Amino acid sequence: MTDLKRTPLFDLHVKLGGKMVPFAGWEMPVQYPVGVMKEHLHTRALAGLFDVSHMAQLRLKAADRVTALESLMPVNVAELKPGRQRYGLLTAANGGILDDLMFANMGDWHYVVVNAARADHDIPHISAATEVEVLDRALLALQGPAAEAALATLNGEVRDMKFMDARTMPLIDGPCIVTRSGYTGEDGFEISVPKEEAVALAEALLEQDGVEPIGLGARDSLRLEAGLCLYGNDIDTETTPVEADLIWAMQKRRRENGGFPGADVIQGQLSDGPTRKRVGLRPEGRAPVRQGVTLHAEIEGPQIGVVTSGGFGPSVGGPVAMGYLPTELSTPGTTVFAALRGKFIPLAVAETPFVQQTYKR
Amino acid sequence: MSVKYTEEHEWLRVDGDEVIVGITEHAQSQLGDLVFVELPEAGTDVEKGDEVVVIESVKAASDIEAPLDGTITAINEAIVEDPTLVNSAPLGDGWFFRMKLADMSELDGLMDEAAYKELVG
């Protein structure tokens, strides 16, 4: 048992009544006293403040950083303009996904945020290609329709930002890296803040109308409704970006020219089609169908797929899930069955996201 | 009226020659908002420890065990329709099922309120 790490907001979480649990080596709030359901609905109605300081923040400033990132990801890094952010995928030689990440062109450097559970893998992996500086900063996410007004009280410049813009600006005192992005399907921001200012920033935001603290429980149900992948559940080293329905994350030049790990496998799947695909699923009835539940083409039939994320969608008002199915059964509207406690529950293959995205384009 | 408690955070209230079974305030607060309840059929014979009820919150699924041997005589359909009744009234309208115990004297082996309060602190 190794010691759990704590973010600069640990004491604030405890003060707010956060229920602290181990997550990817960190002690994080899974929920606050109002509970996951109300936290989820509050974020979609007004604004939620999340501590995501467990994620690793990296600064790449060497001259070779763009070619290095393109050598690791099937993603167009070179043409991402300064002040813009993009979703990225680190791929392996088998075409599998080593991690998903967000990266931004900050002008004379690139800002990269990777999953906490994969930081110990990603940092040496990227360091082998270009120099990596790990930033010792806090990271907050402010998500929901009231996010812009709340953050604008600290710096009105955020009103000028559009979805996936990235800027550096002061909010409390020192420079913050603000991106207009998130993991909920809502408009909102992620804010990298000097760790000694993290509590002041969180408290300043929590004072604003409509801003409440939100735990990891609601973060998961929000991202699931938004159809966003969780690394380790929905994507991993055994799933390719094509199978994971993330072709949109691989821009045309990279798809066509290759030059990234697993290009032969990924380009083969792009031309021939994958044998299986990640899909959205809407179970009939009220029972949540969770990760690991097997999928079947017919009742009592053999297993054809598996649920990779699933639960109750508070905004949908019913169960929602994602999983992998053979490509021929991946068309929305197709009915498949989940083996749940000895019963076979029908599920409809569904378009994702399950809720309307509200990004400010 | 006598109420007994199990270590699995169920309460049993004696009502005539039957008991009414539900989960405690402590249990509902630990589970969080319930979104799904699956109850057994009335008439089912159960043994202590059988998983008779499935309840799910946004976060996770949990099983509720039969507290003692007996027969399920009635179930609370209202909590299937509205699982949040278990959160709002765990000791009242959020009851799970009624059962006829094989041996009423087995209730004596369960905790009374003072002992249960000590358990949950």
List the helices and strands and how they pair.
The complex is a heterodimer of chains A (361) and B (121).
Chain A: H1 10-15, E1 19-23, E2 26-31, H2 36-45, E3 47-51, E4 56-60, H3 65-72, E5 84-91, E6 97-105, E7 110-114, H4 119-127, E8 133-135, E9 137-143, H5 147-152, E10 166-170, E11 175-179, E12 188-194, H6 198-206, E13 211-213, H7 216-225, H8 252-257, H9 263-272, E14 276-283, E15 294-296, E16 303-313, E17 318-326, E18 335-340, E19 343-350
Parallel strand pairs in A: 3-13
Antiparallel strand pairs in A: 1-2, 3-9, 4-7, 4-8, 5-6, 6-7, 9-12, 10-11, 11-12, 14-17, 14-19, 15-16, 15-18, 16-17, 18-19
Helix pairs in contact in A: 2-7
Chain B: E1 3-5, E2 10-15, E3 18-23, H1 25-31, E4 34-38, E5 45-46, E6 51-57, E7 61-65, E8 70-75, H2 77-81, H3 84-88, E9 97-101, H4 113-120
Antiparallel strand pairs in B: 1-2, 2-3, 3-9, 4-6, 5-8, 6-7, 8-9
Rg of chain B is: 13 Å
Low-confidence segments of chain A: none
The average pLDDT value of chain B, as a whole number, equals: 95
What is the CATH topology assignment of chain B?
OB fold (Dihydrolipoamide Acetyltransferase, E2P)
Strand runs of chain B, count: 9
Give a quick summary of the entry.
The complex is a heterodimer of chains A (361) and B (121). Chain A has nine helices and 19 strands. With 361 residues, chain A is α+β, with helices and mostly antiparallel strands.
Describe this structure as you would to a colleague.
Chain B: Its cofactor is (R)-lipoate. The complex is a heterodimer of chains A (361) and B (121). With 361 residues, chain A is of the alpha+beta class. Chain A contains 9 helices and 19 strands. In chain A, a hairpin with a 4-residue loop joins strand 6 and strand 7 (110-114). The longest helix of chain A is centred in the first third of the chain and has 10 residues, at 36-45. With 121 residues, chain B is an alpha+beta fold. Chain B has one domain: OB fold (Dihydrolipoamide Acetyltransferase, E2P), CATH 2.40.50. Chain B contains 4 helices and 9 strands; from the N terminus they run E-E-E-H-E-E-E-E-E-H-H-E-H. The chains are: A alpha+beta (361), B alpha+beta (121). Chain A binds chain B through residues 30-31, 35-38, 40, 217-218, 221, 286-288, 290, 311-312, 314, 319, 341, and chain B through 32-33, 35-36, 38, 54, 56-59, 61, 83.
